[in-house]
Amino acid sequence: MNTENFVTIRTYHDHIIGDLMINALETAGIRVFKFEESHSMLPTENVEIKVHKEDVDMALEIIEEKEGL
Asked: Would residue 1 count as lying in a domain?
């Protein structure tokens, strides 16, 4: 996937929460690119969520609603 027009909207240190947010965005029809950073053999330490720049406002609205629960 070409990520040239994608921007990072959130970084989570818990991969489970990151995956839940990605699932919510994908369910809403938003294209998501997930970048995982790990410095060990353990599960991913950081999950960076990137969305197309056209979807930033809608994606942030969805994430903020989910984070507020």
From this structure: no
Q: Is 29 left (phi over 0), alpha (psi -120 to 50) or beta?
A: left
Q: Which CATH number covers residue 40?
A: 3.30.70.1530
Summary count for the chain: helices (H), strands (E): 2, 3
Say how many domains are in the chain.
Answer: 1
Judge contact between 43 and 13, C-beta under 8 A: no
CA distances from 45 to 17, 36, 67 (A): 12, 8, 19
Whole domain around residue 57: which residue ranges?
6-67
Q: How far apart are CA 20 and CA 11, in angstroms?
A: 13
pLDDT in tens, 42-62: 655 788 999 999 999 999 999
